[in-house]
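Tutorial, part two.
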Amino acid sequence: MRLTLVAAARGTGPRTPWFPDDTAIAPMQSPDRVSSDRLSARDRAAPAYRGPERRVGGTAALLDVDAQCVDALRSWDAGSWTGREIDGVARIEPAAFRCWRVDASFAPPGGESLDGFLGRVSSWLEHIAAEDGRVLVVADSTAVTAAVVYALAAPAETFWHLDVSPLTTARLHASGGTWRLRWLRAPLETLDDRSNNEDR
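Running the prediction step on this input gives:
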């Protein structure tokens, strides 16, 4: 089974790092390049699934993908931190923020631990692995990252070492009960932006 994942386009929320809520709706980025360069006709014809966020649904629509909404593909639930700036949480609740970053079993108030989040996404992957052929998924970048961590059979802390930007695409293969990562590609505009920043 070949699973192609597309991280949702950047929404209309703040540019500062924050725990996103569901008010940001795509697009602030155009997924045209992803659509033409990385999604084949066979990918488009495959069964498609998406996370429940409006931003994710907007990205799927712009990709002209009719995707079934799946709650298991929702983004990492930050609980009461949702909608807040990450630096602000770190400043006001330093002990809790540090636990969140170093303890995969810690959950923000009303939210989800990293272990729980990875387990939710991996359970869905195991369910979908029974399908033959190709499957396409559009989801928040945190869900795409979780899928890659699972395919690599990597420990939970690997999540913090993967930078999956909006409109990144990933290809996973499942065969004989084993998952493999075939590729992980950031959008070209993201690479261009990083190169420009490094040159300054």
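Residues 190-200 have pLDDT under 50 and may be disordered. In part three we will examine how such features are distributed along the chain.
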